[in-house]
Amino acid sequence: MTADEAIAQVHAADVAAARQLLGGALSVARENWIPANAIADALVQELVESTARGAEPARMSAYLRALASLIDRSALPAAAN
């Protein structure tokens, strides 16, 4: 296994763990009747704050652009995807 493969494997495990934690938190938020737009605002604020904690601004901007693109594509009729 190359170093890049090992890094990718660790990153994939970290992403899976983060998704599990976030999924639980989002379930709790929905169970407490927190509106989807408030949840989305909170998630965006967390991404912005992670930049202030040292994440690369260009990387965070790329994540947000990719997210916007995914959301735009998911809003298209199924035949257009």
| Biggest sheet record | none
Number of strands: 0
Shape: globular
User: What share of the residues does DSSP label as strand, in percent?
Assistant: under 5%
**Unreliable stretches, pLDDT < 50, 5 or more residues?**
none
Cα-based radius of gyration, to the nearest Å: 16 Å
* DSSP helical segment count: 3
Estimated helix fraction: over 70%
Structural class: mainly alpha
Oligomeric grouping of the chains:
single chain
Alpha-carbon distance between the two ends:
36 Å
Please tell me the total number of domains. 2
Q: What is the ordering of alpha helices and beta strands?
A: HHH
Summary, kept brief:
With 81 residues, the protein is an all-alpha fold.
Walk me through what this model shows:
By secondary structure, the protein is mostly helical. It has 2 domains: 34 residues; 47 residues, no CATH class. 80% of the residues lie in helices and 0% in strands. The chain contains 3 helices and no strands. It is globular. The protein starts with a helix and ends in a 6-residue tail after the last helix. The mean pLDDT is 89.
